[in-house]
Structure formats: structure tokens, C-alpha cells
Fold each of these.
Amino acid sequence: MGLSANTPLDEDIFVKVLGMNWNTLDDEIIFSFTELYNYANSLPLTKRSVLKVTAKIYDPMGFLTPLTVKMKILFQELCIEKTIWDIELRGESLRKWKSFLQDLILIDCYRIPRCYFARQPVDIQLPGFSDASERAYAAVVYIRSTYSDGQVEVRLVASKSRVAPIKRQTIPRLELLGALILARLVNKLKSLGIESHTLLD
């Protein structure tokens, strides 16, 4: 059962861990955006506000990459267009900014299970994927767990994204950059002790 946008974060159940809300009852990480949405709406519709709001989103594991990459792209566009910091946004830039604010409400109280395994798996794999477009490139790693009864579970571990360089690059080169951040992400996860292996009884 999910949380509604108006659900209060009970201090006895929800605690702050590394800047994120941890639901100690269901053992889930919760991203709540109601405060951020209200803060964003209190700001003028300017390039400076875009940067302020983007900087307030703390997502070290990349769970919110589909959301945050849109803001990175928007801010880069404003920089390319040499938009003045305190001039009100107009046209397509304003539409994208309002669309982002709407997304904050749509995914309010986004929940991520903190535990990777329901029980002891017999096999663990770390499938990773990367891709690129003209605007950005990204990588994502999942953990695929197989249990003794044949059940398989797949959960998101982490992701990374980058906006494409301002100097135009070919898609194959951007795909190589995506593969690079994927390799670095996998190596980082392995250094934390998360890696593929098979457990023998």
C-alpha cells in the first residue's frame, strides 16, 4: 500500500539516513517531494530557481535519474541559450519547468525497498545497461536474485547519468561514454561487496 501525497512522515517510523527518509517499519527508502514542490512554487520562474531546486534533490544512488536528468538537460539548455539568471522563463523552457514540477507531485513519496533479498538466494547477478541520446547518456545496474524454489527477483541497485557535452558528439561516442560510466558503476558496487556469485549448498 503506497503513501499518499498528504501522508505525514511519522518521526517514530521515518528517520533520516544520509539525507533520505527511511521507513523503519517497512524497511524502505522514501523520497518525499511535497516540501520541494512548495519551495519551487515559491520561487520566481527563472534560471536561478531551476538551479536551486535541482541542487536540493539528494539522490546518491541514482534512484531518481529519469527525473533529475530532465533538470540537468533543462539547465544546460538555459546555459547554451545564455539565459540571464533572473529573467523569467518563457516558451518551451517554461513549459519544461512546469512539467518538472508536475512530475514532483506525481511521484511524491516514491518508495524503494532497502533490502535486496527476501531470503537467502542461491545465485546473484548484476546485469547492467547503458544508452545514449543526443542530450544525455546513462547507465543502470540491477541485482537479479535466484532462489532455491526457482523464484527470480530483480531490483534496482544504482544508476548514473550525464548530460551530453555542449560540443556536439556523435551517438556512438556518447554510447561509449555511457559504457564507461557503467563500467565505473559496476566496479564501485563490487568494491562495496555487491557482485555476482553462485552460492553452493
Amino acid sequence: MKVGLQSLPYGLRLLLATLSLGIGAGLVGIACHYLIEGVQRLAFGQASSDLLQLFQEAGNLRRFLVLCMTGCSAAGFWYILQRRHKIFSIRQQIDLAGDRDPATLAHLLHAGMQVAIVGAGASVGKEAAPREVGALIGGRLAKVFFLTVKERKVLIACGAGAGLAAVYQVPFTSSLFVFETLGLAYSWQNFLLVLASTYLATWVAQPIIGQDVLCHLSAVSWSLSSFLQAILIALLVTPLALVFSFLTKQANRKRRKDETILWALPLAFLVLGSLVSFFSIFMGNGQVLAQALLSHQPVPYLPLALAMKGLLVYLLLRNGAYGGTLTPSFALGIGSGYLVTLLLTVVGVHLDPALGMLLGATVFLGTTLHAPLTAIALTLGFTGQAWSLTIPLVLAAGMSYVIRKRWERGQ
């Protein structure tokens, strides 16, 4: 088998590795889908696409107990796992390609726990796990097909994008993510490899995951006043996104990995469980909060609710949990954009709240991901909006990018 693969032309081996990666990443997306559903059924008695209803019907005590048990289980799991294995981020997998391979089983278990705690209601995103496993598959396939270290790094990045594409059904957006956030070099070959892997992964996972958008919102239009709204929201929301981005980076950098995780992470989940036993809106990765705002459901004390949501993400990550920040950033952006639009109404500037939420999400995602184009595509893809709405979103993302760059130069 080894001799047979090596005898194939290099271009054919690269193509076969890319196609295998797309199929593998699609299967990862399906596995994540079933794992979240399985955890929800175990924890709350059923699985549902209407997460707010699912969490509310579970009852106060059940939500509290589920999160407390999840915190204790996750703490013990990550303490034992990290004593025995080094967990590599996607960036580390790319940088160390050809020098050191991550432990496959350890990383699969690590990713599975990330997805499980999201299914149980933890305030972190589920997207980190399929990205990490996709990257892991990309590295392994590159080695199996005897590709060079250069192509191995490319396939790891492609795998991360394909995992994201599969779980959220956003292939074009995930392709942008690979180039903007992971910094893959621009070339025709890389474009083709990224597009092939992301679109194939989406196609493989689609029959199970479906094409439904993350959050439902009626079609939004824009006018000349939208440009003023884009400028104001970029000016006012970007600083909030910078604070959240700083906090989550600090949390990831200083994450507890020693024996203190055994009491600190259960305590963090206890805080979350105590809060959601009264306010189910804080359950989950942010999708519940975002959908509530987009469907015009009242969220009492919105500024406090947004601050608490951001702090809960920081609290879990800092005390040992792993997970993504994409969906929390989307929810916080939706809330921040809506809040700014309401405050402008108070001073006599009447603008569209729905567009304000989309602008806020774009600014927040662009700031936290360091990827304005990806942020625009994610906002449109997550809410099912037409691409004609891109124009005001581009203005907001562009202004936010300038503000972020000036802030970074001042550090």
C-alpha cells in the first residue's frame, strides 16, 4: 500500500488527499450533530432545533443539575487528558507539521468533550471542535499520501475550514476563514484545495445537518440612512468587541491546566448553572440569545445581559474549559448592534433595529476573528440574508478594521 501510493503522480496524491479530507470533514460535522443531539436527549429528555424552548421546558432545577454535573465531568476529563497529552491548537498543528504529530485519540476525545459541554448548555461555541478535528484529519491524510511539509500545512488549514463548513453549512464563508484567520497564502492551487474540501464537506454533511439557517430573520433592506447606522455602530461596537477579544485571548493564554482545574471549573459551571436556573436565555453558545433578539423577544436588562454573557464565556475558558468564541461573538454583536440602535432612537435618530443587529454582528465577528470578509459572509449566512445587504456591512466592517488596527498599533 505504501509503495502503491508513492508510485502515484504527486498531483493525483494531492487531489485524493483533498477529496478524502472533504469527505472526512463532512463525517466530522455529522458526528458533531449527533453528539450534540445525544447529549441534549440525555440531559434534557429531548433534542430540538428550538433551543430556548428546549431549555425552558427542562425546568430550573434540571438546568442547574445538568451544568453542575457537566462541570465536574469536564474538569476531571481535561485534568487527566492534559496530564498525559499535549493538546495542539490549529495554529500549533500548522506550525509543527512535519516535526511533531498530535496524539489522534487524545484530540478526538478533547473535541468530543467540547461538543458535549455545548450540548449540555455551556457558554462556549461548538465550532472549535470540528475545526480542530478537520485539521487533524488534514495532517494525517497529508502524511498517508506522502505530501510535502508545505502541502501538509495547507491541508491542515483546509481541514479546519472544512470542519467549520460542515457543521454550519457555510462553505464559501469557511473558505474565507482559512485565508483571513489562518493566514493561508493566496495562490490558485490553494484556492482550489480550500474550495474543494469545504464544498465537499458541506455536501457530505448536508443530508443530516440540513440547510436551515442558524437564526431566523425576515429579509432586511437598506437605504441611505444605513450608511450612517453602519458608521455609528462601527464606532460604538468595535471597542466592546475589542474588550471581549482581549478577555478571551487572556483566558485561553492563562487557562487552568493543573490540579486547580478540579475545583475552579466546577465552580465556574456552578455559577453558570445558578444563573440559568433563573434565566434560561444564558444557556448555550449564544444561539438562544441571538434568536431571541432577532425574533423581537424581550430580553430584560439587555446591557447587563450582554455583559454577563461575555463574562460567562471568559469564566469558563479561563478556568479550564475549551470551546469556540464564534457563536458567542455573533450573539454579542447582535445584542450590541440592537442596543446601539435603541440608544440612538432615544436621542432622536431612528434607524432599523434589524439592520443594526446585523451590523453589530459583522463588527463583532470581524474584530474577534480578525477577518472582516469572513464576518460579513457569516452574518449573511447565519441569518439567511441576501447578498445585496453586503454594501452597508462592508462599510461597518471596514471602519471596524481601521479602528482595530489603530488600537493594535497603540498597544
Amino acid sequence: MSSTLVHAPGEGNFNITDLSQEEQELLEDIRKRKEQLLREIEDLRHEISEVHTEMETMDMSEDSKNNPKTKQMSIGRKKFNMDPKKGIEYLVEHGLLNHTPEDVAEFLSKGEGLNKTAIGDYLGERNDFNIDVLKAFVNIHEFKDMILVQALRQFLWSFRLPGEAQKIDRMMECFAQRYCEMNPDVFTTTDTCYVLSFAIIMLNTSLHNPSVKDKPTVERFIQMNRGINDGEDLPADLLVSLYDSIKKEPFKIPEDDGNDLMHTFFNPDKEGWLWKQGGRYKGWKRRWFILNDNCLYYFQYTTDKEPKGIIPLENIMVRETHDRHKPNCFELYSGSNEIIKACKVDGEGKVVEGRHAVYKMSASTPEEKEEWMRCIKASISEHPFYDMLAARRKKASNTK
């Protein structure tokens, strides 16, 4: 053991080797206990901070809970994210939206709580009313004195382009008409603006998609756009400036505001607060649970868009259990006594595989515990979900 100096209050420095073996072991135990207490204090501080944040969120939302219109608006947004047409119909029926292209376009333009993929799908629909909404939506944008790249950046940030070619065609045609209307001296025809807009979008993909190895040069971009200005060439300096702008800064494609699990979260089999016991540290944390689609999701707050964890109910069993710290407990466990396949988000925001052999939860009342157990048993499935989830996350990460 190395010689260590320890400072004792009022006695100066002394050498640890001056202590007996028993005293040294006692000192080491005290140090370990101190470290453990410091960790526990830090955990408590973190939990207190979480509770304070949750209380503030509850206080801020208390007024809105008692307002039926606010609740209906929230339901309407969720319905829109699931089925845009039904969402708009719901809002109109409840007097929260006028059934005019202008009002609907204004609602979509504000975009509060709306999934931008759903906005794009709705704007791209072929029927007359949706086409009128699309025109009104585009007309909300101010493109005057903007170069084409700036206008495209603004336009493409307000929704997410749908996958269908016909929908994209209608949307970009409306964009080109609006841009040329506000900047009449830039292009000879709207067709020129339309074709060049597509060329810019393709350039953005070619320059910034890692899977595209052969990056186009500015000379090739100029060559690609020969003769598109009603048979004439566009000024070379214009094309160079467009190329440089895209090369320097790619388009910011909006993420889906309502994630791809929105269908699951909108109409769950059951949802509510439960206390969940930790895996490594056996402390209890209050989490918002949602049960549906043969999965159990849990969130830190009801307002969170992404779950903290996902527990597929694959080869899972549920049983009543007891805990001296919490009442009304039940737990999920693997029938084969293996680690439960699950995903969770760690402290750095990374998705990692859960390592629980058992998930223990506590309900507020015995009745609530029985209801959760009944619903979970009804949802338990032997169909694999974990591989599907892993494949979906891998695909998402590869496309970013």
C-alpha cells in the first residue's frame, strides 16, 4: 500500500500507514460509503429536477385542460397527422376551422403540432379543394427579390415533399408560378423556373447524399441546364451562384413533427402514469405509458414526441408482485428467463438495447393495477417485433 497523507481537522497531516490495519480498513469503508452517498445525492438531485420540470409543465397546461376548444384542437391535429382529410373535417365540424382554401392553408402554414409529411400529402392531393388549398398555401409565401435557391429553401421547409411524382409535379408547378409572379424579370417562362427548381433539388441530392460517389461539377450543372430558358441558355453566373449556394449549404429537410409511431400513440389500448423501477439502480421513476400494437411505450412527459423506451410484448408474461417501497406492483418477465428484448434512450440520446430481465411497475390503485395487467395480457404476442424495429432504425439512420 502506498504511503498517503490524510488531513485530519485540528491535527495537521498524518500518514495513513500510522493507522492500524483495522483502522485503515475502516477508513476505506468510510470513503466508499461517502462516494456512494454522493452518487445517491446526485441521483436525488436529478429526480427532484425532473419532478420540478413536470410540475411546471402541469401548471402551464392546467388552463388548457379545462378548455374544451383547446382539447378539440389537439385532437384535430392528431387526427390530421393520422389522416389529413379526416383531421380537417373534424376541425371544421367543431367550428375550429372554416372550410375555405384560405383558412385551411393558413392552418397548414402555421404548422403547430402538425406532421410535415402529412401536410405534404394533403397539399399534393388531386381533388379541386386540395388544389385550391395548395395554391393558397403557396401564395402565403413571399418570394419577392429572393434568388431561386432562397425561395426553394423557404418553400421546402414548410412541409415534406411526398413520394408520388404527380403530387410533386403539382406542388412544384404552383411554386414556379408564384415565384415568377413575384419576380417577373428573372425567367422567360414558368416552365424555366419549374425545370431549374427540379435541377437544383437533384443537385442538392447529388452533392450531399453519401451514396452518390460521382459528384457533379459546376461545369456539368451548367451543361445540364442548356437551353431550358425557352430554348436559350440561362446566364452562367446565375447557375454558378445557384451551384455554390447548394454546395455550401444543403437544403434542410424538415423532420416529421409527429413521428412514425403517431398511429400507435393516437388511439392506444391503454395509457396512463405508472412508476417504473430502474434496471441498474433500483430507484423508481414516474413515466407515462402507452400500450398498443403489441408494444408498451414509456415517456418522461405526456408532451414528449419520442418514447424513452419501447418494450415489445414478444414472449413476455405478466404477473402480480410485491415491493416494500411501492404498492400495487406488477412485472413483465420473459417466459424463458432471458433478457427482455427492448430499446431505450440513454443519457446521451442514443438508442441502446435494454438489459432488463424483469420490468417492475407500480400503479396508483389496485383497480388500476388489475386493468393494466388485463390489457397487457390481451396485447401479448409471440410475433417478432424487435427485428422490425431495428431494421426501421437502421434505415432511418442510413437516410440521414
Amino acid sequence: MSKNQFNNVTHCIFDMDGLLLDTEKLYSDAFNRITNRYGKEFTWEHKAQTMGFKTTAVAEAVVEMLSLPLTVDEFQSEIIKIYEEIFPSANLMPGAERLLTHLKQNNIPFALATSSSKENFELKTQRWTEVFNLFNHKVLGGSDPDVVHGKPAPDIFLIAAKRFPDNPNPSKCLVFEDAPNGVKAALSAGMQVVMVPDPQLPKRYIENPTLVINSLEEFKPEMFGLPSYST
């Protein structure tokens, strides 16, 4: 009998921001370029509540939480210009490329499930197209009409699972997330979830992930019945 405390999986689903790409600081800097003008600071407390939201939902939340004297449309119009400037500088997170390449080499199907829009996805990944071309498919929640409800609703992960050719049971899918709302979404979808939280995320937002690790470099695929690294 296996000593493994986790259930074996056959498919993997990855979030992107803060998990594969180091974009959380970019988001904070972008928001604070606007909020600081009004004497307001977008902090990790605010971020923890909005991580994983669709683009429009984030704008609505920031305007409301910080009581900004802007309409949501005005905020979005400004933030889009800042995104165009800073997102192309996004770097890969430690261990991301190694894990994705390993899964590809071992014929493990994996998908992307990000709340980003198509436009933002292309800005962030333009230096990493080779890495993101490894995915079997991508669900871009900010632009995908099938993703009606953003995280923490399970929609995006259930859709990502259904789009694999063999339509696996959600219990056979392992999600990788950094955001509290993403963890909730994965659990609501009936999937196991590996959380890689940012060190600055307040600990009380880490609720019930299947496994918590400090970096994708720490992930051991064999814990979930996946092929282990050869070196």
C-alpha cells in the first residue's frame, strides 16, 4: 500500500500570475501609480482579496476598496496603458520552466487557466512564447466567454479539464496556484491544489490547500503519482 498521502493524478492545470510569471509586484506597482495620486496604497491585504479576479472585477474592487474618485472605466483606461508598459518585462518564476518541460517530456497533459485577458496574456508572455507553447491548451478567463464566473468560482478549472481530449474527472486534475481565490476555485472544482504563496501573502489567507510549497522548485511530481525528475 502506498504511503502517499495524496491521490494520484493524470492531468495538471496551472494558474499563471505569481505562479509561473513573476507579475504580482508589477500589478502592485501599476495599481499604486494610480492610487498613490489620491494618497492611497494598494497593499497585500487588498491583493490577497483580489488575486485571481478577472480584469474588470479587479478594477471594480480596487476602486471600491480604496474609495478612489474614479469610475471603473477611468481606472481601467489608465491601468491598461501602464500594463502595456510594464508587463513585457515579466520574468518566469523559479522552477516553472523545468516543471512544464518535464511534464511535456513525460506526456502528462497540462493546461493553463489564467484570469488574464488575451491582450494581457500576450503582453506578459511575449518573451516566453516557447514555454507557453508547451501547454496542451489555454483558458484565458478574462476573454473566454465560457468562463462566466471568475475565481473563486470553479468555472475556469472545470472548463480547463473539459477541454482535454479525454475529459478527465476533476479528481484526476492537479491545480497549481498562488492565490487564495484560486485555491478556493480548485477545491470547489473537486481538484487537489498545490499552493505556492508569495512570502508577503498574510498567512491567514492560506486556507486548506492540498500542499503548500515555497517554490515550484520544491515540487516532487511523484507525490501525486507523476513521473519523478530524472536528476
